[in-house]
Amino acid sequence: MLNIVLFGPPGAGKGTQSANLVNKYQLVHLSTGDIFRFNIKNETALGQLAKSYMDKGNLVPDEVTINMLEAEVEKYTDAKGFIFDGFPRTTAQAQALDAFLEKKETVISLMLALEVGEDELVKRLLIRGQDSGRADDTDESIIRNRINVYNEQTAVAAEFYNAQGKYHAINGVGTVEEIFGRLSSIIGEASQ
Ligand code: ADP
Q1: From 56, 123, 128, 144, the catalytic residue
Q2: How far is CA 29 from CA 16, 81, 109, 119, 192, in A?
Q3: Residue 128 among the catalytic residues
Q4: Which of 126, 112, 137, 153 is nearest to 37 (CA)?
Q5: Does residue 105 form part of some domain?
Q6: Listing from the earlier edge strand, what are the strands of the sheet with 2-7?
Q7: Catalytic residue among 37, 124, 146, 166
Q8: What is the predicted pLDDT for the residue at 191?
Q9: pLDDT truncated to tens, each residue of the chain (192 aa)?
Q10: 62 lies in a domain?
Q11: Ligand 1 centroid vs 192 CA: distance in angstroms?
Q12: Strand ranges (DSSP E) for the chain?
């Protein structure tokens, strides 16, 4: 299996690049943010809980997120692999994912981390907020909080994969095609 963690701060381009990677490598794309938004739209109990955190730009608690992600993975019994987008976002989530995949006799193949500077991130998110309908993309103070949460709670999760020799940083500034080319060449090298 090819299991990729696509990593990076809010607005780094994880969703955009996931769509390209799914096409090229026939992977299942699991975005925890998308799954939470689906639950909010459908007014589930999980959605209601997640919304209270997401609207402020804070992380949904680990236990809730981990249980949800594992239940999603279980739905795809014949997947060739997964792209985890927006997960793991804490070291505890990374540890839980490793333990879960071990039970399924598979592992994370690599973490691809998109790097983009803060000013560029804020600019991109405010533009996205103009038509995405996402409340967390329209208010600059919420955007800044999400970036702070990333720096304080999420960035450390990269260390977990670095220690396993699976971490790859990618310049996330450029055209969508250029960045996709960078990602593909790392996947190509890693799967040889
Ligand atoms: P972005 O990468 O632009 O922040 P996402 O759709 O990945 O967008 O996440 C939106 C929000 O969903 C986050 O700010 C957070 O509240 C919640 N969320 C998504 N993934 C996780 C996760 N793995 N753990 C905790 N909260 C999460």
Answers
A1: 128
A2: 11, 9, 15, 28, 22
A3: yes
A4: 137
A5: yes
A6: 28-31, 81-85, 2-7, 110-115, 167-171
A7: 146
A8: 76
A9: 999 999 999 999 999 999 999 999 999 999 999 999 999 999 999 999 999 999 999 999 999 999 999 999 999 999 999 999 999 999 999 999 999 999 999 999 999 999 999 999 999 999 999 988 888 999 999 999 999 999 999 999 999 999 999 999 999 999 999 999 999 999 999 876
A10: yes
A11: 32
A12: 2-7, 28-31, 81-85, 110-115, 167-171
- Strand 2-7 versus strand 110-115 pairing type: parallel
**Is 11 close to ligand 1, i.e. is its CB under 6 Å away?**
yes
Cβ 57 under 6 angstroms from ligand 1: yes
Where b means 16+ CB within 10 Å and e means fewer, 134-148 reads eebbebeebbebbbe
Residue whose structure tokens are 């790097």: 115
Question: 37 catalytic, yes or no?
Answer: no
Q: How many folded domains does the chain comprise?
A: 1
- 20 lies in which domain range? 2-183
Q: What is the pLDDT of residue 190?
A: 84
Q: What is the pLDDT of residue 133?
A: 85
Of the residues 55, 69, 89, which should be mutated to test ligand 1's pocket, given the most ligand atoms within 8 Å of the CB? 89
Is 192 domain-assigned?
no
Position 188 in a domain:
no
18 lines ligand 1 (CB under 6 A): no
CATH of the domain at 172: 3.40.50.300
pLDDT attached to residue 164 = 97
CB 101 within 8 A of CB 107: yes
